[in-house]
Amino acid sequence: MSELKYVSGNQIKLTQRNESLFLDCQIGDELHTDVHLVRPFPLSNPHEMISIRDKDNKEFGIIEAISDLDPESKKLAEAELDRRYFTPQITKINSLKNEASMWRFVVETTRGPSDFFVRNWRDNAHELTSGRWQITSVDGGRYEILNLDNLDERSQILIEQLL
After folding, report:
1. Which residues are registered as beta bridge partners of 107?
2. Cα 77–68–3 angle (5° rounding)?
3. DSSP class of 2
4. Lowest mean pLDDT: which of 26-30, 42-46, 158-162?
5. 3-class secondary structure, 83
6. Could you tell me if 135 and 128 are in contact, meaning their C-beta atoms sit under 8 angstroms apart?
7. What is the distance between the alpha carbons of residues 68 and 138, in angstroms, rounded to a whole number?
8. How far apart are CA 142 and CA 90, in angstroms?
């Protein structure tokens, strides 16, 4: 495998073959098939320094900034990262109850309604910045509250019992 390369958007072309979950990546005259993209800094810098990895998860390149990619490559990169880092944003908490030593959330998100359980709140909910929370459900799903103050009053009252 070739050495790790930092590439700007104009040096790279991403494509996707029909019915493939993976991308193909052209860097100069090198073609890498069945690659996937990883965000080294998914919360603090989600659109820059994107790792390009082969099917064995070996990193061979870094995309400096997604915004510099051509429109089709940018679209493919964003779709791949959205699939890999699926994190709906909670916009409303309809119900929050303690059931069998777990918290059951019934919420509205940017991706529609959701129902999930959280065990050990202190281990599975993290305040990323003031008022911004990331919550991990028992099945590994990730949810985010961008700003507690932007939730409606009832949602804020419900979540206060955990804070």
Report:
1. 93, 114
2. 75
3. P
4. 42-46
5. helix
6. no
7. 37
8. 10
